[in-house]
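Bumping with the actual sequence this time:
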Amino acid sequence: MTRLLHQTCFNHATREAVARCPGCSRFYCRECVTEHDDRVMCAACLKKLARAPLLQRPVVARLLQLAQCFACGVLLWFFFYFIGETLASMPSKFHEGSLWKVNWLER
């Protein structure tokens, strides 16, 4: 791994590098780097970040997350509804416990 101390800018060969872009791993001078969301990036990587797909944008991601929570709630409601219907359709002897007191060997 090369050290930052001995590197020059990717765009300006005569200037010393002050930062390394985390996206492309190239070294850049003060003029070529930009700070975005507390990260130092080059202009090319910043353009790629600006053209992010629709699903990576915060608003769409939150709406998708809300839709998933709603679908999970509906699924849980149906699950507990069918559990309740199953318990309600069982004979009353099952709920009283008298079904379990019968000696099955004597039958």
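The tokens above came from a reply further down the thread. The chain has two domains: 4-50, 54-92.
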